[in-house]
Every structure is written in C-alpha cells, then in structure tokens.
Amino acid sequence: MGKVTVYDHPLIHHKLTILRNKDTSVKDFRELIGEIAMFMCYEATRDLPTEEIEVETPVAPGKFRALSGKMLAVVPILRAGLGMVDGMIAMIPSAKIGHIGLYRDPDTLEPVEYYCKLPTDISEREVFVVDPMLATGGSASAAITFLKEHGCKSIRLMNIIAAPEGIAVVQQQHPDVDIYVAAVDECLNDHGYIVPGLGDAGDRIFGTK
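and the corresponding structure tokens:
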C-alpha cells in the first residue's frame, strides 16, 4: 500500500488557513496555491537519488551531491492543477510538464477525459500528478490510470486538501502510488465537495465565480 504523507509544517498550516478563507482574493489565492505546492514539492522529493560529482569552487575542487539524472515530470489535472505547476517547477525546473483534462459529471460525479498531452518519454520519468483537491478520488484515479496506460511505473499524487473518501479510492485502485497532502478534511457533502474544504479550487484560482 502506498504511503500517505500529511504535512505538519507551521508555514503550510498558516498559508492553508488563508487559502480556506472565503474572502481571500483571487490574486492571493493563486499565489498561495503556488507557494504551498513549492513547500510540498520540497518534501515529496526528499528520497530522490543523488550521486557525487566533482565541482571546482573558487577555492578548491571537491566532490558534492547532485541529483543522479532521475528524470521528472509534473502532470496537472486540468484545470485547477495548473495552479500548482509554477510552485513545482520553481523547485524542479528541469521537469517536463504534461496535461490531463478531466471534468466531473455533475450527475454521476464520475470523471470524463477531454484532453491528454504528455511528454513522449513520460514512461521513463518519475511523475508527480498534481491537483489542489482530492475529493471523490475519481479524477485522480482516472489520471493515474491514463499514465499507467502510457507506461508510467513511478507515480506520486500531490493534493493540497483531501477527503478521507478520496484517499481511500486512490489507495484501493492504485495501491502502488504514494499520496502527499497538506490537510485531510472531515468528509464530502452530497455534492461531492470537501467539507470544510475551500470551495471550488479552479473557480478561485481563475476568478470564474
């Protein structure tokens, strides 16, 4: 079973509290999503392999640790996942970016794919699937399935807020995927929204409501 990492850092808690506030502006909300993603990326990449390389400093040559050529990719689930990309790329600028477009059918709450564009070498990369909210788990699970169908073998899921129901679905359908979340909230309501959550992340990032 993949591990679930719930972040316990004062800066993340503080920024997440501002993010939840219904009066937080679109500008601030968008910036906070990126900042939290950057903090989360720092921890989620903690176990990436490194190797010693030789570098000459202004004083003397020496051998120091650097990433050992592990290729990375960030795949946001459209559209809200786009809000996390800049924060991720600030930490891992060499990563390639793919996109998976999904929407949730309002009646069945099941995900429907409308777009998928991935790097040609995606199967060789460590993939970080990003989406601010893990609600029912349907979209995340579908996105992970698409990636596996493209040959991806190492996938991690990063969400800012998750519902227990969503975590359970991903763990059941993809027990090999590690999940990283900033907070686990109480439950889902009858409309599939996380409670207390922060509302519709996509609308709040892009100012569409």
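(Above: one complete record from the training split.) The radius of gyration is 18 Å.
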